[in-house]
Amino acid sequence: MGRSFEELIAEADAVDVSGWDFSWLDGRATEERPPWGYQRLMGERIGRAAMSLDVQTGGGEVLAGVPQRAARGMAATESWPPNLARAQENLRDKGVVVVAAEEASPLPFADGAFDLVTSRHPVTVHWAEVARVLTPGGHYLSQQVGPDSGHEVYDFFLGPRPLGRSGREPEPARAGAEAAGLEVVDLRTAELRMEFLDVGAMVYFLRKVIWFVPDFTVEKYRDRLAALHERIQADGPFVAHSRRFLIEARKPARR
C-alpha cells in the first residue's frame, strides 16, 4: 500500500528547499544529465585558471564538488539570502570568497579581474558585465536552461502555452555574447527526460524551482496536485523533458 496523497504533500511541503542540492529527490524523481558533463568541464577550466568567478552559484554545491582550484584565487556571487548562507558554508573550506550580488546589478569586481567566469543555470546573463570582468583571452563557460524546458509541468498546472517564446533559445545567447565583444567557441544543446514518481517529488520541485509555477503553494494547487497523484497512481511516472545548452565564449586577447 503506497503512501497517501496527504502524507506525500505534507512531507514535501515541510522539507527545506534552500540551496541547489536535489538529493531529497533520490528514488522519487529522475532527470537525464547532459552528455557534456558540465561539472567536469568546469573543473578542467578552473584547474587552468589563475582567478575564477562563479556567478549565481546557488548554494555553491556544484563548485564545491569540483576538486580543482584556481591558482591565485576564486570567488562566487549569489543574490538569494538562503542560498547565500548555504554557499558560504559549502565554499568556506574551499577558499572561495562568496559575495552577495543582485542578479540585475553590475558585478562587484574590477575590470579584467578574472580569466574564467562560470555559471550554471543563470537566471539571466549580463553579457557586458561578463566581458568587463574577464581578462583579455579569458573564458566564460555556462550551462543554461534551454527553450520551453519542462513545459509539460507548466502545462499541467497552468494550461498549455505557445512554445518557442521562452527567451531561452541558444542563438539569442550567442548574439548576446557577440554583442558584448566575446567570441563563441562552443554551443551545444540537449533534450533530457524527467520523471516524477510521486506527487511529493513534484511539490518539492515546484517549491525549489520557482519559475515553473511562480505562484505555487500546496493549498492553491491542491486540486491539480490531487489530479496528478491519481494520474501517477493509474499510469506511472509523470514525464517531462528538460532542455539545456552549453555555451563557452572567449574574450579576444589584446593585439
TrEMBL record:
Keywords of this entry: Methyltransferase, Transferase
Domain Methyltransferase type: 53-140
Listed GO biological process terms: methylation
The keyword Cell wall biogenesis/degradation appears for this protein: no
Pfam families for this protein: Methyltransf_11 (PF08241)
UniProt cross-references to Gene3D superfamilies, sorted A to Z: Vaccinia Virus protein VP39 (3.40.50.150)
GO molecular function: S-adenosylmethionine-dependent methyltransferase activity
Name of the protein described by the UniProt record: Methyltransferase family protein
Species annotation: Saccharothrix australiensis
